[in-house]
Amino acid sequence: MIESTVVDMRAPYLIMIGDVHDPLYAKTGFGIVQWRRDQVAGQLRFAGCPVDMGVPDLTVQEAKAAGAASLVIGVAPVGGEIPESWWAVIEEAAAAGLDIVCGLHIRLQDYPAIVEAANVSGARLIDVRVPPRKLPVGTGRKRSGKRVLMVGTDCAVGKKYSALALDQALRGAGIKSTFRATGQTGIMIAGSGIPIDAVVSDFVSGAAELLSPDNEADHWDVIEGQGSLFHPGYAAVSLGLLHGSQPDAIVLCHEAGRTEIDEWDGFTLPGIAECIALNLLNGKLTNPSIRCVGVSVNTSSLPAAEREGWLAALSAETGLPCVDPLVEGMQAIVNNMLSS
């Protein structure tokens, strides 16, 4: 039987964000800090790096002395490459005996100096973005159990955070729930999943089916979304994930104040209602009963005094509960999910 990718990471972690200048591209590090703070020893930043995850700054040697067991590459830049200037530090970490954990579109085994350093020290090289072999093509067959998928107006708008918060809220309400990770950070947090954007396109929907198999009738799989149907670069993975997830419900995720697709100048973000409508239209192919149960919004860019009114206006516009999962939590969306 084909299984999800399983990642065995040794804590505590030293999270490397190097010289990244945009917090969006340090989302792997921020996600681990948010959801696994007790397993983080600190961050490794180069001089002049403006991004700060709010954990101690440590060098490789300081982290080793503090008991760190793994160096986690905490960035997710467009294209998934590591800057050349980072490799000497990664080699130092491997030589010091720290496992190297990487979720980018590269393979650590392809870098001889890193392999040699790890072989000498006994460190492990862990590539997270490796999907299972021999994935099936999607069938569209109706599966038992219930599923809710996070969809978005863009990349990096909070789909992972929303899924984790929703899973947490469901469990808190005594509902059977499982978080299903589809990206590198989610897999690192959950310990397993399938890196959907590393799957050959013909098998994306099949991988999503595998990720959320038949289950008990009252069990919810909470599926982390990827990309956006409106993204000129990543819409394909979003569509395959939507079809294969066969969701009974979707949660639309958005960042307040964002007006363009990030890093794709000239591509305007869709309206909330437009995005919900397109996801429902496409989702009906494999689940005619699909519905949207709420809107999850990253409101960190809004002045605190404006947040509540902004969300209330959006709720009036959509007729749906609209929340910031890290402020209000997801209970209002849970209530709507369970209402029918």
List the helices and strands and how they pair.
Blueprint: E1 5-6, E2 13-18, H1 27-35, E3 40-45, H2 60-65, E4 70-73, H3 87-95, E5 99-102, H4 112-121, E6 125-127, E7 146-152, H5 159-172, E8 177-180, H6 184-190, E9 192-193, H7 204-211, E10 220-223, H8 235-245, E11 249-255, H9 272-283, E12 291-298, H10 304-318, E13 322-323, H11 331-337
Parallel strand pairs: 2-3, 2-4, 4-5, 5-6, 7-10, 7-11, 8-10, 11-12, 12-13
Antiparallel strand pairs: 1-9
Helix pairs in contact: 1-6, 3-4, 7-8
Protein name: EBNA-1 nuclear protein
InterPro entries: DgcN-like, DgcN-like_C, DgcN-like_N, P-loop_NTPase
Domain D-glutamate N-acetyltransferase-like N-terminal: 47-131
* Beta-strand segment tally: 13
Indicate the CATH architecture of the largest domain: 3-Layer(aba) Sandwich
How far apart lie the N and C ends?
Answer: 34 Å
**Counting H and I runs of at least 4 residues, what is the number of helices?**
11
Order of helices and strands: EEHEHEHEHEEHEHEHEHEHEHEH
Major β-sheet strand ordering: 8-10-7-11-12-13
Inertia-based shape: globular
Oligomer: single chain
Going by helix content, strand content and strand pairing, the class is alpha/beta
**Main β sheet profile:** 6 strands, parallel
Number of domains: 2
Instruction: Tell me the name of the CATH class of the largest domain.
Output: Alpha Beta
Overall pLDDT: 95
Any idea what the radius of gyration is?
A: 20 Å
Name the poorly predicted regions. Answer: none
Pfam families: DUF1611, DUF1611_N
Domain D-glutamate N-acetyltransferase-like C-terminal: 137-334
Protein name: EBNA-1 nuclear protein
Domain D-glutamate N-acetyltransferase-like N-terminal: 47-131
